[in-house]
């Protein structure tokens, strides 16, 4: 009896003992809230750091601000004096701080995720779904200490389930300092690192021990797509390396009994028009190089945004010659994604052995 219970809960054990399972149970869906993905309780990783380890991280963060080489852009600027690609100096610029109910159910829960939307970004995605935040320097400036105080407000007043740092890749030193300061002020919530995955191993090393849940995107696979749509030559290789490092730190996504995620990696892939073959490659990489138990959200809410669908700039001669035809930028992705394209990526994920998906509930209750 004990053996068959383990078979139902563990993916590897399932294959090892498949012959012992009655035929009617072989295709039964596995449970997310089951060992080894079920936690009795959880203490955030930053609570377990020693005073010496915390001091070393503070020193490293200040050093990186003086010579910023944390993200793959490697600008090398002194952020106390000037800015690099991200246009952000030694303080962070924040657009919104509030309980957020637009995340995965296991992240937002009933009370919301305590989201901090940072302005600026180290990518230049032509289709950015948060263009007004990521590509424009809108918001208010905060020191790491002031940011830490906001974490406490989200915890004590908002009663959120976690602190969700949205697009933090370009402000990693400030974020590290803010978490350490918030720990001293009494923060008890898990930290979610909500990233494009255009991170360096150095930045992830600084965040190691501070982050509980990594929430990376894996946007595109082909280099040509990355160059054209993200304005980055090496996105896929960087994202692959980063997600592997994230998984080595915190493992597969784990929950407490209330259905709220506490630690691990949840990978998002936004399906884009005509790019489903790249989605297939991403799913294959995740299964073969990270874990078949990795939690994946195959997202279907792509919409033309930012520069997509805007009129192309034309000379006066071109305007006079093409009066009846208005060309738009990035016309190939200037449409919603189709159900067939989403289905292709989902089937590819299942075919390579992935099984933990962020699916809507098959009932009228809450999606946990």
Description:
- With 368 residues, the chain is an alpha/beta fold.
- 35% of the residues lie in helices and 14% in strands.
- The protein has 13 helices and 11 strands.
- Strands 1, 2, 3, 4, 5, 6, 7, 8, 9, 10 and 11 form an 11-stranded mixed sheet that branches.
- α7 (172-185) links the parallel β5 (163-166) and β6 (191-195).
- The longest helix has 16 residues, at 51-66.
- The two termini are 28 Å apart.
- Mean pLDDT is 88; it is low at 1-29.
Give, in order, the helices and strands: HHEHEHEHEHEHEHEHHEEHEHHE
Low-confidence stretches: 1-29
Radius of gyration: 22 Å
Helix content: 25-40%
Shape: globular
Largest sheet: 11 strands, mixed
**What is the terminal-to-terminal distance?**
28 Å
Number of helices: 13
Mean pLDDT: 88
Find the structural class using helix and strand composition.
alpha/beta
Number of strands: 11
Q: How big a fraction of the residues is strand? A: 5-15%
Keywords:
368 residues; alpha/beta; eleven-stranded mixed β-sheet; globular
Provide a short characterization of the protein structure:
By secondary structure, the chain is an alpha/beta fold. It has 13 helices and 11 strands. It has helices at residues 2-9, 11-16, 51-66, 105-108, 131-134, 144-156, 172-185, 201-207, 223-230, 235-250, 276-290, 316-321, 339-351; strands spanning 38-39, 92-100, 113-118, 140-142, 163-166, 191-195, 213-216, 254-256, 261-270, 295-299, 356-357.
């Amino acid at each position: 009896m004990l053996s068959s219970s383990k078979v139902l809960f563990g993916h590897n054990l399932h294959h090892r003992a498949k012959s012992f399972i009655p035929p009617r149970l072989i295709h039964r869906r596995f449970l997310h809230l089951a060992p080894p993905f079920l936690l009795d309780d959880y203490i955030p990783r930053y609570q377990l750091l020693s005073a010496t380890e915390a001091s070393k991280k503070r020193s490293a963060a200040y050093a990186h601000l003086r010579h910023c080489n944390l993200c793959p852009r490697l600008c090398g600027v002194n952020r106390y004096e000037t800015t690099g690609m991200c246009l952000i100096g030694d303080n962070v610029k924040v657009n919104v701080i509030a309980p957020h109910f637009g995340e995965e159910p296991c992240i937002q829960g009933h009370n919301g995720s305590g989201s901090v939307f940072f302005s600026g970004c180290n990518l230049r995605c032509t289709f950015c779904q948060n263009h007004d935040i990521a590509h424009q320097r809108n918001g208010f400036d905060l020191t790491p200490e002031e940011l830490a105080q906001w974490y406490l407000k989200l915890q004590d007043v908002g009663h959120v389930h976690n602190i969700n740092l949205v697009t933090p890749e370009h402000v990693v030193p400030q974020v590290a300092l803010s978490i350490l300061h918030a720990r001293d002020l009494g923060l008890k919530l898990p930290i979610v690192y909500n990233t494009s995955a255009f991170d360096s191993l150095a930045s992830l090393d600084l965040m190691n021990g501070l982050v509980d849940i990594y929430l990376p995107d894996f946007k595109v696979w082909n280099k040509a797509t990355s160059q054209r749509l993200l304005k980055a030559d090496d996105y896929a290789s960087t994202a692959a390396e980063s997600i592997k490092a994230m998984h080595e730190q915190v493992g597969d996504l784990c929950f407490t009994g209330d259905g709220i995620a506490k630690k691990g990696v949840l990978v998002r892939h936004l399906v884009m028009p005509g790019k489903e073959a790249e989605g297939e490659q991403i799913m294959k990489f995740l299964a073969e190089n990270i874990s078949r138990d990795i939690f994946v959200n195959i997202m279907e809410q792509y919409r033309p945004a930012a520069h997509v669908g805007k009129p192309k700039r034309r000379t006066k001669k071109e305007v006079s010659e093409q009066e009846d035809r208005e060309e738009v930028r990035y016309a190939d992705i200037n449409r919603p994604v189709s159900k067939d394209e989403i289905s292709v990526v989902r089937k590819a994920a299942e075919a390579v052995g992935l099984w933990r998906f962020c699916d809507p509930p098959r009932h009228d209750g809450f999606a946990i």
